[in-house]
Amino acid sequence: MPKLNCELSEQFPLWPQNGETIQLKEWYFSALAKKQIGGAGWDAWRGQALNVLKPNQVFEYGPLYGSWKPVDYWNGELNQHYTTAMCLLIYETCLE
């Protein structure tokens, strides 16, 4: 059986600025893979992800309270519901 060659990005999650976009799906699968590998790399990545996600959550009272504003590459098609769902999956993975 051939050996799978897979490289995980060493980049830490950074919230986009000035109209930039991110790939939340990539963050989620990176979180799952890094968690399985464990170690100092996971601890550092996990800490950065939590530090990035929490302050970017919407805390203004109203119907969007607790959600995240759309920042994903697919914003136009998938909107705030997708961004919030992906951020929650990443957050949950980091807290397990």
Rg over C-alpha atoms, rounded to the nearest angstrom? 14 Å
Q: Could you state the order of secondary-structure elements as H and E?
A: HHH
Question: Which of globular, elongated, flat, extended, rod-shaped describes the shape?
Answer: globular
SSE class: mainly alpha
Number of domains: 1
Give the number of helices: 3
Rounded to the nearest angstrom, the distance between the terminal CA atoms is: 33 Å
Please report which band the strand proportion falls in: under 5%, 5-15%, 15-25%, 25-35%, 35-45% or over 45%.
Answer: under 5%
Q: Which bin fits the share of residues in helices?
A: 40-55%
What is the count of β-strands? 0
| Mean pLDDT rating | 84
Largest sheet: none
Low-confidence stretches: 1-5
Write a structural description.
There is one protein chain. This protein starts with 23 loop residues before the first helix and ends with a helix. The chain has helices spanning 24-37, 39-53, 75-95. The chain contains three helices and no strands. It has one domain. The model is unreliable at 1-5 (pLDDT under 50). With 96 residues, the protein is mainly alpha-helical.
What labels would you give this structure?
96 residues; mainly alpha; 3 helices; 52% helix; globular
